[in-house]
Every structure is written in structure tokens, then in C-alpha cells.
Amino acid sequence: MNTMNKLLSPILLIAGVVLVVVSLIMDISGSTSALRGPMLVIGMVAFFVGLYLVPTQKHHRKIVHVIFLFPLLFTFAVTVIIPLVLGICYSFTDWTGIRFSQLVGLQNYLTMFKDPAFIWSILITFIFVALNMVLINLVGFLLALLCTSGLKGGGFFRASYFLPNLIGGIVLGYIWQFVFNNVIIGLTDNISWLAKSKTALFAIVIVYIWQYAGYIMLIYITGLTQIPGDVLEAARIDGASPTQTLFRIKIPMIASPITICTFLTLTSAFKQFDVNMALTNGAGSVASFLGNYLSNGTQMLALNIYNTAISKNNYALGQAKAVFFFIILAIVSLIQVRISNKKEVEL
């Protein structure tokens, strides 16, 4: 059997590599042959079968692990790593979404920072993120305390609070658009909250809290239910009040869920797009910002990037904004995780 493997393994490995390379060359060269796809699949299968048949006992388990991990790693590389690298490269060109003709260096980045509408989008995005990080975690934690307090019908309340998270952001936005324009309008001098840039942002915050707080609640519920009952019982016997138990026992013992929830709300709020698009589509007037009148007073960063690339058909500039957005999100996320982990150790 080992002799057969020694003969068959290199043949399959070489044949697999040759078929994959030939199929890729055919694709890059613009060949319309129907054999490209089958050759690529057969080549990959042959390569991994040959890899599996490599006659070595020492590294065989590692080879099997690589084979099983490859589909996940390949998918991650194709959908995340490669597009990220290509996107960074395209941001230095005049890319049209299909092809580019020349390198423009930092021109897209310089144009981006000269746009007052983009600077405004960054500003209101940070305001939106700050409000949501505090309010969503506060509301989610209070709901978790309510659902773990032994209240009758706790399961019903959990499902009810989580239900808005199952509704798509676009649908949710149109539902709340009706609420703001037809129900709440009578409370604000017959002017919809969505018609004013100052109140429209807070309207988006309200909708986003309503959608996302139930999801955060479930994470806090998991943390609260894992607190040992004997610890809470000992605190009660020692005469600790509910407030003391909350701040000195429960909150320190769910430091890890707090870190997770803070990270999730931070990244999710930064990437907010669908609710923003459905509620206001970025509309809202700003009388004066950096000496300019703006008509996109509620357009947050993700929507600004989308409109630049799709609506204005400026893919290169949109890609430059997306790269800058990625850098901001990465830096803020790393800082937040570092601070949260430090606080977690202290607690």
C-alpha cells in the first residue's frame, strides 16, 4: 500500500498543480473554453487526494487538518483578504469598477479630505457610535436584569425583546418611518423628526436601540445566569442590598460579556447602513459646516461611501473612503478591546 501511495501521490500532486495553473491561465487570458471550470475542480481534488496519500506517518495528521481547514481558509481569503488587498490597490488608481487606466497616487485621499460632506459623515458617525455604545448596553443590561429577576413570563419577554433583531434593517426603517411621519408627528408641532437634521439622528438612534438591544440582552442574560447562586446567597446573608449586589458582585462577574457587548455595539454602530438608508437616506440640511451648506445632514460614513461609489459612480474615491473607514474601525476596535480587557482584569 505504501509503495502504491509513493507512486500515486506525486502523480496526483503534479497533475493537480498543472490543471489548476492551466485553468487559471485560460481564465486570465480570456479563454471562453468550457473546460476551465472542470479543470480547476478536478485539479484541486487531485492535489488534495495526492496530499492525503503522501506516505508519511509523522505529518499525516497535520496534512489531514490542512485539508479539512482549506475550504474555510480559502473562502476567507477569497471573500475578505484578497478583496481587501485589491481594494487598497484600487484606491490609488482611477478605477471605474471594471478597470483602471492609470495610477493617481494619493489623489483620491486628498479629494476625500477636501469634501465637507465626508468630514460631516465622520463626525456624526462618531456621535452615533458614542450614543449607541452607551444606550444599547444600558438598555440591554436593564432588560437582562428584568428577565433574570424571576418575573413570570420571562421566556415571553426574552422573545419579545429579541424579536426586533430578526427584522431586516430596511423593513425596520420603513416601519419606523411611518411611525415618525404619522404617529409621533403630532408631538412635535406637526413636523416629523425625520425632517430635521438635529432630531433625525436621534430618531435613527432610537430605532437602532430598539433593533439591537434585544440581541445584547441575550448575551448579558447568559453572563448573569452563570453567576454562582451560592455567591449571591452569601451576599444576601451578609446583608448586601440589591444595589450593592449589582455593583460589587454581578457587574464584576460579567466583565467578559461586557467586553463582548461593547465590542459588538461599537463595530455594528460604525457599520450602520440599512436603517440610515431606509429612514432618511442621508437627507437633512446643515446650514453651515466648514463654510458650506450640506444637504446630507444624516448621512453616516457607510452610506456616504455607498453613495460615492454607486450613486455618483466614483468607485476609486469610494474605495479610498472605504480603506480609510477600515483603518478607523480597526484602530478604534483595538483600543476598545485593549481598554476593556484591562478593566476586565481590574474587576
How would you describe what is shown here?
This protein has 347 residues and is mostly helical. It folds into two domains: 106 residues, no CATH class; 237 residues, MetI-like (MetI-like fold, Orthogonal Bundle), CATH 1.10.3720. 73% of the residues lie in helices and 2% in strands. It contains 14 helices and two strands; from the N terminus they run ααααααααααααββαα. Helix 5 runs parallel beside helix 8 and helix 6 packs antiparallel against helix 8. The longest helix is centred in the middle third of the chain and has 32 residues.
How is the secondary structure organized here?
Elements: H1 2-28, H2 36-52, H3 60-90, H4 107-113, H5 116-147, H6 154-162, H7 169-182, H8 197-225, H9 229-237, H10 242-253, H11 255-270, H12 274-279, E1 286-289, E2 292-294, H13 301-311, H14 315-346
Antiparallel strand pairs: 1-2
Helix pairs in contact: 1-2, 3-14, 4-14, 5-6, 5-8, 5-11, 6-8, 8-11, 11-14, 13-14
How much strand content do the residues show?
under 5%
CATH 4th-level superfamily of the largest domain: MetI-like
CATH architectural label of the largest domain: Orthogonal Bundle
| Low-pLDDT windows of residues | none
